[in-house]
C-alpha cells in the first residue's frame, strides 16, 4: 500500500456480473451507500450463454479508495471479476453521444463542418435540425458538445463509458 | 397442485430426487431446510406465509419457536448461530413482518453472523401492484444482507434455498434473505439436491497463501514489542480457531488483546491476555497497541471503537492483518502484510511456519522488557473501582457483574451471556471473564438496544441445559420486553439481570462529558416495576436495592429453575471507565472522573 500519490484520479471500473435482476442495484447501491461517486454508468449483457453482463462505472477517487472500491465490488455475490483502469493502465475507453443541434443558415453550415472534423455523423436531419452521432473518448465528446453550444445545441444523450484493456489481457 | 400432495411425508428422502411425489413449494422449502441441518426456526406467521406454516404444522423434523416480534426472531437466530456455529433461521410474513427484520439483519451483517431469513411475499402476479402487505423486501434489505433473493419460479425454490445457506455460512458469514411469493409456496415445485459444482461467481478464499504467512512470521520474529489484536473472526472460524490461537500465543509468548466481538477466544484469566482494547478497553491493552512494534490483527477490522484517532493509531508498528474478507485489508489502516484466509487456517499455518523460520540469527527473541513495560501498565489497574461493602451501601454496577460472574462460575454450569447496549454492556465485557468462545453474545457493530433478551431466547433454545443470562440495562430491556412472553411459552429459564441506573446511562455519560451534563431525554422515566412485570409474564421477579441484598438475589436467581428478572438498582451516575474519548489517541485514556474535561472540540463532533 503506497501513500505517496494521494490526489484523486479518474478511473473506469469494469465489472463482469451475473445477468440477474438486482445485480446492477447491488453495484450502484454500494457506490451510493459508501459515498463513492458515479460519473457515468453503462450496463449491457455481453455473454448470453454464460448470463453475464458488463457494468462500467467512471469514478474519481484517490488510489487507496479505488482499491477499496475494487475490493468492495469484488465481494458482491454476483460479481465475477473487476478491473480498475486508470490512466496508467493501458486501456481503451469510449462513449457515444447523440447531439441535437437546431440551427439555420450560417450556423447550420458551421455545425456540419465541425461535425465532419470530429467524424460525427448526422444520423437525422430536418430543415431546422441535425442529430449527430459521435463516438470517442469522453474529452472528445465534451469538446464537440462545447463547440456546438453557440451553434444551437438543443439536446444531448450520452451512453457513458465502455472500457476494455489493450493487448491480449482480458478481464 | 393436488390434494394428495398434502399427505406427503416431509422427512427428507435419503435417495436424492423422487420424481413420483409432487411437493408444494412450501414442502420443498421444509425438505431443503431439513437437509441443510436446520433444527429450529424462529418466526412469526402471517397471510403470505400461511402455506409454509401449514407445512410446518404437518411435520416434526423442524421445530418452530414463536417469537413476539420479527426483530426478535432475527436476534434469537443470531444468538443461536453465534452460540452453536450453525446457521440461524428466521421465517416472517410479507410487508411489516419483513420490514421488522431489517434491524436484526443489519445487526447480523455488521457482526458477520450466519442467518437465513425467509420472508413471505405477495404472489408473483401481484408484485408491483401495491398489494396488501406488499413491500419491496429485497430492495429494502439489499444493503442489510450479504445477499438476497426474490424467487420468481418454482424451479428456483430448492436451488436458491440451498445456495442461501451456503452463502450465509461460507466466507465471511452474514445474513441472507429469501423472499418467497405465496403462489410459489402453494403450487408444485421440483425438489433438487444441493448443487455439487461451486457457485460460479462467489468463491471466497479461505486458504491463506504460504508466502504471506512466511512474511508475517518473519516480521513477528523480528518484533521486540509484538502484540496480537484479535476479533470476532476467530469466533466465527470455530472453536478450533480459538484453540489454535491459544497455542500460538503460548508458543510465541506474545501478549494478546481482543475486540468486543473476540472475547472468549482467549481465556480472560490467561497471563498473556491484556483484556479488551479500544474506547472502553483496558489501559494495558491500549498502551500496548500504541507502543507495539509489530501488530498482528487476526479476524479484526480496525473498527473506529477500536482505533480511536486514526492518525495516532499504533504509530510506527509493522502491521499484519489477516481477514477472510479481502475488502477489510487496507480499508481503514494501511498494513504491511495482508493475509486473506480463514482465521483458523491462518493461525495453524503461522504455528507451522514459526517452527520452520529460524529466529533472528544469534539472538533469541527477548520479550522480557516488553512484558516488564506491560506489567507496569497493568499495575495501573484501570478496571479498578471501590465498592463500599456496608449492607446499606449502593451497589456499583461493576461489582454486581463481578459477583454475578463469581456466583455463576461457582455453579459449574456452562454459561452464556447476552447483553443489551450501553454501559452495562461495556461493564459486562470488562468484568465478566469469558474463558471459552461462543459464550458471549452482544451486538457490536450495530449496537442494537433490545438485542439481549431475544438473544438469550436463541441461546437457551440452542442450549436448554445451560445457564443463560442477559446482562441488561433498564432502557434496552424495554425495547424487546415482549420476548418475556416467548420465554414463558417455552419455559426458558433465562435470567435477565438488569443493571437499573434509571438512565440511558451511556447517553447520560456522553452528555455529562460532552454536553455539560445537560441530560436531554436520557432519564428512564415511568419505568415499570420489573418484579411485577416478570410475574405478569409468569416468571419470578427479584430486586436488590442495596449491597446487603445483592448476593441473595443473585443466588436465588441462579437457583431458580425458571425464568427470572432481577432488578438490580445500581448507582445512578456511574460512568464507564477507562475511556478513550472520541478523537483521542490510545495513550490518552481517561482513567477516571478526574480527567473528564480533556475532550477536544473535534472529539465532540464524533460519535
Ligand atoms: C435501538 C437503539 N436506539 C438507540 C441507541 C443509542 N443508545 C446507546 S446506549 C443507550 C442507552 C442504553 O440505556 P440502558 O439500556 O439503560 O443501558 P445503560 O447504558 O444505562 O447501562 C442508547 C439510547 C441504541 N444503541 N440502539
Ligand atoms: Mg440504564
UniProtKB/TrEMBL annotation, chain A:
- The ACT domain covers 12-87
EC class, as a word, reads transferase
For biological process, the GO terms are: isoleucine biosynthetic process; L-valine biosynthetic process
List keywords of the entry alphabetically: Amino-acid biosynthesis, Branched-chain amino acid biosynthesis, Transferase
For this chain, one GO molecular function annotation is:
acetolactate synthase activity
SUPFAM superfamilies in alphabetical order? ACT-like (SSF55021)
Reaction(s) catalysed by this chain, per the record, are: 2 pyruvate + H(+) = (2S)-2-acetolactate + CO2
Cite the annotated pathway. Amino-acid biosynthesis; L-isoleucine biosynthesis; L-isoleucine from 2-oxobutanoate: step 1/4; Amino-acid biosynthesis; L-valine biosynthesis; L-valine from pyruvate: step 1/4
Q: What is its EC number?
A: 2.2.1.6
- Gene3D superfamilies recorded for this chain? 3.30.70.260, ACT-like. Chain A, domain 2
What InterPro entries would the database entry show? Acetalactate_synth_ssu, Acetolactate_synth/TF_NikR_C, Acetolactate_synth_ssu_C, ACT-like_dom_sf, ACT_dom, AHAS_ACT, AHAS_small-like_ACT
Cite a GO CC annotation: cytosol
- Tell me which domain of life the UniProt entry assigns to the organism this sequence originates from: Bacteria
Subunit structure as annotated in this protein's UniProt entry: Dimer of large and small chains.
Check the record and name the PANTHER family matching this protein.
ACETOLACTATE SYNTHASE SMALL SUBUNIT (PTHR30239), ACETOLACTATE SYNTHASE SMALL SUBUNIT 1, CHLOROPLASTIC (PTHR30239:SF0)
Belongs to which family?
A: Belongs to the acetolactate synthase small subunit family.
In UniProt terms, what function does this protein have?
Catalyzes the conversion of 2 pyruvate molecules into acetolactate in the first common step of the biosynthetic pathway of the branched-amino acids such as leucine, isoleucine, and valine.
| Protein's name according to its UniProt entry | Acetolactate synthase small subunit
UniProtKB/TrEMBL annotation, chain B:
- A molecular function (GO) term: magnesium ion binding
Q: Where is the Thiamine pyrophosphate enzyme central domain?
A: 213-349
Kindly list the GO CC terms recorded for this protein: acetolactate synthase complex
Q: SUPFAM superfamilies from the xrefs?
A: DHS-like NAD/FAD-binding domain, Thiamin diphosphate-binding fold (THDP-binding)
Cofactor detail note: Binds 1 thiamine pyrophosphate per subunit. Binds 1 Mg(2+) ion per subunit.
The record places domain Thiamine pyrophosphate enzyme N-terminal TPP-binding at: 24-138
Domain named Thiamine pyrophosphate enzyme TPP-binding: residues = 421-568
Q: Could you say which enzyme class this protein belongs to?
A: transferase
Q: Which reaction does it catalyse?
A: 2 pyruvate + H(+) = (2S)-2-acetolactate + CO2
Among the GO biological process terms of this entry, one is: L-valine biosynthetic process
Q: In which pathway does it act?
A: Amino-acid biosynthesis; L-valine biosynthesis; L-valine from pyruvate: step 1/4; Amino-acid biosynthesis; L-isoleucine biosynthesis; L-isoleucine from 2-oxobutanoate: step 1/4
Q: Name one Pfam family in it.
A: TPP_enzyme_M
EC number(s) in its UniProt entry? 2.2.1.6
* NCBIfam families assigned: acolac_lg
Q: What is the protein name for this chain?
A: Acetolactate synthase
Origin species: Komagataeibacter melaceti
Q: Which gene encodes it?
A: ilvB
